[in-house]
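Standup notes
- DV: blocked on the single-chain target, sequence here:
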Amino acid sequence: MFSERSVHLITSCTKGKNHQGHVWPTLDIDPKQTPDDAAYAWSNIVDDARSNQAVPALSLYSGNHWSTAKEILNSTRNLELWIISAGMGFLNSRDRVPSYEATFHQVPFRHDLWWKAITKSLGKHNRCATISQLMQSSPNDEYLIAASPVYIAAVQNDILKGIESLTHPLTQLTIVTSGAYAGPLEEYLIKSSSRMMKELGKVRTSS
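- DV (later): unblocked, structure below
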């Protein structure tokens, strides 16, 4: 997928968005739905919105967290920026997406099950459907992930599957999150009480 060794910065989406138009999809799941059924219904809504208005993900998000991510993107050679989104799945910053409102807090079942379902339903539109697919396609690259414990827990199975493809996982993967995370990815963690993206910027500078 990428012609030379790259750094992949993977971070969470932001609540702040530069909305296009006056109406946009808002995730609203019936608790009686299964994750797959809910993801399928949501993907149909997103597809309709995408056909009317869509912008590169890099332009959609806003706020301090996103500004720092863009600064790292602009100052780091061979870096690809990716987004973990509860509403859009796994995005590259160049993937085109509509305005939307969705967070994991709106999901009434296990977040890892939602992540599996939403990446299956919406992944066909994106450069890579999942984190594991990205790692499988570029097993020698470097991966830096910065997200809250809620997001890390939601995607941890996806990451663990991808780790199996990496040449030297402990030297290729770094995850920055707060001390609230406890799980199978702890050996890859840098726990930070400060802003995660600032901490990740320090990691990039020192690596």
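- Follow-up: The chain has eight helices and eight strands.
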